[in-house]
Design a protein that fits this description.
Blueprint: E1 8-9, H1 14-21, E2 44-48, E3 51-52, H2 65-68, E4 76-78, E5 84-86, E6 89-94, E7 100-105, H3 119-133, H4 135-144, E8 145-152, E9 155-160, H5 167-171, H6 181-186, E10 199-207, E11 211-216, E12 229-233, H7 238-247, E13 252-255, H8 260-264, E14 269-283, H9 295-304, H10 307-312, E15 317-320, H11 342-351, E16 357-363, H12 368-378, E17 384-390, H13 393-399, E18 407-411, H14 417-424, H15 439-450, H16 457-470, E19 474-487, E20 491-492, E21 512-513
Parallel strand pairs: 2-12, 2-13, 16-17
Antiparallel strand pairs: 1-3, 4-5, 6-7, 7-9, 8-9, 10-11, 11-12, 13-19, 14-18, 14-19, 15-19, 20-21
Helix pairs in contact: 1-7, 3-4, 9-11, 15-16
Length: 515
């Protein structure tokens, strides 16, 4: 599966790619008063991620990080080792039992439209993502945040419905970028991003469906990045994107494995990759009377899937036994998973009396192949008929995990075991549409949540991960690599971002002109 697949595509024919990528003249800056005068092309970083978001709402699953991280900033940052760093929030303090959190905010920040960044803005964003956007990224807010209270302009307090010691991890991710409350209020945030970053969207210098121009925001609160401006492109055709990169019309692009020989043979291109997407099968209809209520049914279906076949569909994918991989908090080396044991699957099925199972799973054009293979493998069992319904990308994003289908395959983006459990498996998890959890799993999770910050936490969460696997609530795990290519004649210091598990992303702040 292409890691650019979570975007709507805008195909740019190869013959006109160079024309569309050429620089334009005009005024720079965003929709506010902070725009600067026109900048030369050498002041503009040109990046292609293969499509554009269908919405710019904060917390939207349809807005990939490579786009989100240009206009928006988050309250905190997270190092790959888990260290939380200040950003728009400078200090924080958890209440007793991690049931509340008080944030101290910067007092020198404005949004691109001139709206002040303050505690009211934070409250607006949290409540909007929690109550309106929802989904995979808004769901944890819905299940965990009871109230948001403004103390004063620079202090905001959150009350949680459960111990939420990992809330700062969540604040560093795609769940809660800070958007202008004025743009949220008038609805324009859906089509026009308004954040607090060094780059403000400029509609006049953009080409609808082809290029989005983000100009230097003169009132930015922090250090200036290496490039004053950023142009984002939507070239979905890999051949066209490679040609544009080699010619110098693009500086950076995501790419696919089959393009690497051509790129690596060029003297002016470097590449790197990193693990970006975690995909697995979730059994959603597992409540009382549900199609997948019986644990043995889930086990048999999981055993019928050959993860290596799924991985072989793309050279940038590896099969895994669990959501977290070696070296990550939550990884359990004792988990063996369910993989390629059709004989055992048929034995279980026969013990069950070869029951009839008919179910449908949704798929988008970008992941139809791998989902179809899973469906065909499960359908090898007697009386099992799992079929695939092809959806448009927007339909897929809005339905694959909301209970419209009894099972689903897609990205599980949670980077901590507490958030993965809280998003998909707890009784109140927004993505647990069955609202069912076993007493054993609930008890293990309660123990793990209560041990946050103690030496026992890792072992306790490993036990939770083991139980999720034992109950076959999720299986057929894979990790997808993101491949990035850049033109060394035009840019330097292109490197992965600090954020983990985020596709189509580079460290925008670090990149600078090659000269």
């Amino acid at each position: 599966m292409s890691t650019r697949s979570f975007m709507l595509k805008a195909i740019v024919p190869l013959g006109i790619a160079g024309l569309l990528l050429s620089g334009c003249s005009g005024s720079s800056g965003g929709s506010g008063d902070g725009g600067s005068s026109a900048a030369a092309t050498s002041d503009t970083l040109r990046a292609n991620w293969g499509g554009f978001p269908e919405t710019w709402e904060p917390g939207s699953q349809a807005m990939e990080p490579g786009y989100m991280r240009v206009p928006y900033e988050t309250l905190v940052l997270r190092e790959k080792d888990g260290t939380i760093l200040p950003y728009l929030a400078t200090e924080w303090e958890f209440g007793e039992g991690a049931k509340s959190l008080t944030l101290t905010l910067r007092d020198d920040v404005t949004f691109h439209d001139g709206t002040p960044f303050n505690a009211e803005a934070v409250k607006t964003n949290i409540e909007y993502v929690r109550d309106v956007v929802g989904g995979q990224f808004g769901g944890p807010l819905a299940s965990g945040v009871e109230s948001v209270d403004v103390i004063d302009d620079t202090h905001v307090s959150l009350t949680f419905s459960r111990p939420f010691g990992t809330f700062l991890d969540l604040l560093s991710q795609r769940n809660l970028p800070m958007a202008s409350p004025a743009a949220i209020a008038d609805g324009s945030i859906k089509t026009t991003p308004v954040g607090t970053s060094p780059w403000a969207y400029d509609a006049e210098r953009s080409i609808d469906g082809t290029k989005m121009f983000f100009g230097e925001y003169a009132d930015y609160w922090g250090e200036k990045p290496g490039f004053a401006n950023v142009e984002l492109f939507g070239i979905a055709d890999d051949t066209a994107a490679t040609a544009a990169l080699l010619s110098g019309d693009l500086d950076v692009t995501d790419t696919e494995i089959d393009e690497l020989p051509r790129l690596e043979s060029a003297g002016n291109v470097d590449t790197f990759d990193y693990p970006a997407i975690r995909v697995n099968l979730n059994f959603l209809d597992r409540g009382a009377g549900g199609i997948f209520e019986d644990q043995q049914v889930r086990e048999a279906l999981c055993y019928a899937i050959d993860g290596n076949v799924i991985a072989s569909l793309s050279e940038d994918r590896t099969a895994e036994t669990q959501h977290f991989v070696e070296g990550e908090f939550g990884y359990n080396p004792e988990i063996v998973g369910y993989d390629a044991n059709l004989e055992k699957a048929k034995e279980i099925w026969e013990e069950l009396g070869n029951p009839e199972i008919t179910a449908q799973v949704g798929a988008a054009p970008f992941n139809k192949q791998e989902i179809t293979v899973r469906a065909e493998q499960m359908s090898q069992l007697p009386n099992v008929n799992i079929t695939v319904q092809e959806l448009t990308a927007p339909q897929y994003f809005s339905t694959w995990n909301n209970g419209s289908y009894p099972l689903g395959v897609g990205n599980n983006a949670q980077i901590t075991p507490a958030d993965w459990y809280g998003s998909w498996f707890s009784e109140n998890a927004p993505l647990n549409t069955s609202k069912t959890v076993s007493e054993k799993l609930s008890g293990l999770a309660g123990k793990a949540l209560g041990s946050t910050g103690t030496p026992e936490a890792d072992a306790n969460w490993q036990a939770v991960m083991q139980e999720i696997s034992d109950e076959a609530l999720a299986c057929s795990h894979s990790v997808n690599l993101e491949s990035i290519a850049y033109n060394t004649d035009t840019v330097a210091d292109v490197q992965p971002a600090i954020q983990v598990w985020e596709q189509n992303l580079i460290d925008y702040r670090a990149v600078k002109p090659a000269s």
